[in-house]
Amino acid sequence: MTGKTEEALGYEQARDELVEVVRRLEAGGTSLEESLALWERGEELAKVCRRWLEGARARLDAALAEEEEEEGKERGK
User: Fold this and answer.
1) CA torsion sign, 59 to 65 to 68 to 72?
2) pLDDT tens across 7-57, in order?
3) C-alpha–C-alpha distance, residues 46 and 70, integer Å
4) I want to staple 11 with a disulfide (CB 3.0 to 4.6 A). Which of 39, 52, 56, 60 is the partner?
5) What gap in Å lies between CA 14 and CA 33, rounded to an integer?
């Protein structure tokens, strides 16, 4: 998976594909080579999801900090 492809995947897309990868791995019946490829794809998808979640957390933290700053200014009036 290239960086551009990773960037193009939204959180929901990556999560849904990751769920499918896990389902296929848990079902078994794949060759060792297929299982390794699925595992690698799952790792890539997990990284994409983690980046999305970290970005969302950073945005939330920034918004909360901004809100607290505004409240502090209002109290200081």
Assistant:
1) negative
2) 689 999 999 999 999 999 999 999 999 999 999 999 999 999 999 999 999
3) 36
4) 52
5) 22
Tell me how far apart the alpha carbons of residues 73 and 30 are, in angstroms, rounded to a whole number: 61
CB 30 within 8 A of CB 38: yes
Alpha-carbon gap, residue 38 to 18, rounded angstroms: 9
Please state the length of the chain: 77
Beta strands in 1-77 (DSSP E): none
Whether the Cβ atoms of residue 49 and residue 15 lie closer than 8 Å to each other: yes
d(CA 69, CA 26): 48
Q: Enter the pTM of the model.
A: 0.76
